[in-house]
Please model this.
Amino acid sequence: MTGTLPDLAPDLSAVLERHADRLDLDLIDRALRFSASAHRGQKRMSGEDFVSHSIAVALILAEQLLDTATISAALLHDVVEDSNVGTEDIAREFGSEIAGIVDGLTKISSLTFRSSAEEQVENYRKLLLSIAKDARVIIIKLGDRLHNMRTLEHLPPERRSRIAMETREIYAPLAHRFGMAGIKAELEDLAFKFLEPDDYRDLVNQVASKKAVRDQTILKLKTPLEQELSEAGLGSYEVTGRPKHLWSIFQKMRKRNKAFDEIYDLMAIRVIVRSVPECYHVLGIIHHNWTPIQERIK
Model:
C-alpha cells in the first residue's frame, strides 16, 4: 500500500491490507490525510498527537470488519467538532454518506448524561438511537468510547469517574444491543477499573494467580470436545477457551455473596460453526457427553 497509511498508521494499514478486496483503501487514506491536516498541532491529554485517537478508533472498527464508509468516518469523527472544518467540507471531499455519519457523531457528542436513574438511563439510550439515524454512528461512538476508556488515566479523577459511570450505564448496554460482545466486555472491565479500583486490583491478582490452572482446565475440556466433534463428522469448526471477564466475575461474587474461590464458572468454551443447524448439533453432542446443569442452561 502506498500513501499516508503505512507511515502514519502502520497497525491500521496492516489490518486494512488483509481486507483490501472489499475496502477502498485510497478513500481511507484520503480520510486519514484530511484528519491529520485538520488536527495538526492538537494534542491529547496524554501528550500524543490528536490524530492518534482517530487512528485508534478506525483500527478498532477495522478489526470489527466494518466497511469503508465507517472506517473513513471514524478517522474524521472529531474533525467538525474540534477544527474549522464544516460538515459541508466533509460532504464535498468524501460524499454525503460519510458526511451524514460525521454529522450524527457531532450531534451526539453534545449530549450530556446527567442521571443514573434507570428510567433516565434508558431514555438517554433511546435519545442516542433516535439522533443517530444511521447505526454506524453508534458503532463509531462505541469505538470512540472504547479508546477513550483505554486512555482514561490521563484525565482528572472527577472526569474519569463521570466517564466511567456513563460507559457502564450507557455505552456497554448499547454494545450489547449491537451484538458487540467483546467491546461490551472491555468497556465494563475498564469502567470497573476506574469506579471500583480496589476491588478491581484484588480481582486482577486473584484471576492471575489461577491462570495456569485455568489454562490447563480449558485444554482438558477442549481436547476431548474437538475429538467428539470430529467423530460426529463436523468438518469445519473452531473451539476456543477464554476466561470470563472481570466485571462478570465480580458481579457473580457480589450477587451470590461468595468469595472468588467459591465461583466456579470462571471460564467458557466457545464453539464456532458454519450454520444454525450445526450449532444445535454441537449442543446435542455436548449434552450427550457432559451432564448439563438444568438451572444454568440459557
